[in-house]
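The data layer described in this paper is built around a simple, fixed record for each protein. We quote a single record here, exactly as it is kept in our systems:
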Amino acid sequence: MSGGVDSSVAAALLVEQGYQVIGLMLRLWAEQGDKDNRCCTPDAVVEARRVADALNISFYVRDYKEIFKATVVDFFVDSYLQGITPNPCVVCNRDIRFSRLLTEALNLGGDYLATGHYARVQQAKDGIYQLLKGVDSAKDQSYVLYTLTQERLARVMFPLGNYIKPEVRRIAAAKNLAVFNRPDSQDLCFLGAGTYRDFLKRQLPDAVQPGPIFNTAGELLGQHQGLAYYTVGQRKGLTVFNARPLYVIRLDRATNSLVVGTLEELGRTELTAHQVTYLSGQPPAEMIEVTAKIRYKAHEVPATLTPCPDDRVQLTFTMPLRDITPGQSVVFYQGETVLGGGIIEIFG
């Protein structure tokens, strides 16, 4: 429970369905000097406890500050140092929520860990558990859940998967839950004031150094402020003049240089990914047709998936994509079903 409307309604629905529910909230790391992590402020704790009291369920708060810092925040910072753009929500779900927290829920005597994610789990006729998109396409969170294993899928529940967000708020209001109009939580919950670039400046005051900006022909165009402040496909913030708009094509960590080019130079039709996992536990035996998302907010696009050795995959798209970004997750689907995903590798 986070003190927000989604987890509160998830708990309320399960109580209504006759489950014995226990509320668990995590206290997560925030920068020194900041009041709290955005998703577990004192106000959020109070709201979650009020909901638990209204539902007549037990409520516990667990301190995960140091675990979260070491697992998620340090990963986030280190990734930018390596010149890649991470998705910390994927890591948090894999290594915190559906690992440590799931174990804690089971140790408390629970049979399942339920969350307010907009996704669905179903068991196929052959016994394999499947992860499906949430019914609300605008809120679907299956992208950040692709690392779930068969063992974990058997122990998780997503009560909101068949609802759209306005319905969830109406349910909260009908049940007199005070959080019915609480704003949605924000991504990158551990950020304090400002943007992720401000956060990196505070966390890496000496590690981020200016360097040269080159075009794809190797011509020097100017100077960048530090590779950590840029990502592939970025246009804003490039302090160079050119007759045509320029975009970040590549971050070269070895030379601390930024390579920029035109929109035509940016687009790519292929990518490779590593650390690939499949929800079924097994890769496909041969090349298959899928749809894929290269970022959480990206549209799905048709692609051909070719499994490769060493937990890798190659995806070939029917058209060039401009935002293929090393470090981001690529997630592949067939219809409503999530097949798996992996981390986009550095290219060029």
The chain has a mean pLDDT of 92.
